[in-house]
Write the structure tokens for this entry.
Amino acid sequence: MINQRILAHFNESAELKTRAAEVLAGPIASAVELMFSALSNGNKILACGNGGSAADCQHFAAELVGRFERERLPLPALALTTDTSIITAVGNDYSYNEIFSKQVQAFGQAGDVLLAFSTSGNSANVLAAIDVALERDMRVVAMTGKGGGAIGKKLTEADVHICVPHDRTARIQEVHLLTIHCLCDGIDVALFGGDAND
């Protein structure tokens, strides 16, 4: 019985990734272009999300500041999910809904990119961060699922929406992880060209 469940998880994930590739290749390429433009102009990428999406933020920032698959200079990316003193202070003194927006106010500048993760598209603190980013003339790359929720309605034509066509959180997160790797690879290639493994 358990083996059948495991196989079902693998099969559903593989089928979704194959189907999502056709839908998401264009938005992912647009996100790479947006991030490449920001980084090449001396700007940075801020990332926010909750739970598993918080881990995705940290994964993305680590790949840019450290490396993805090639040696290169560090690239400026910051996960807004890691400073527990800021998060608990803002959550306690103001509201949990402001834990990311306050940091975008503090660190975000015109030309920066906010990478916003929400599998439902309805995370209140991510929505608040997007509001501040748009007020500061930042661009937003939103990674969602389940139809995109309120985040999908908030984005402008200058932003990028990568919405996984599925309703199951685990499957959405699996595609988000693959998308992170596509973004990191695309940024490396855009900034530094192809390599011998292409």
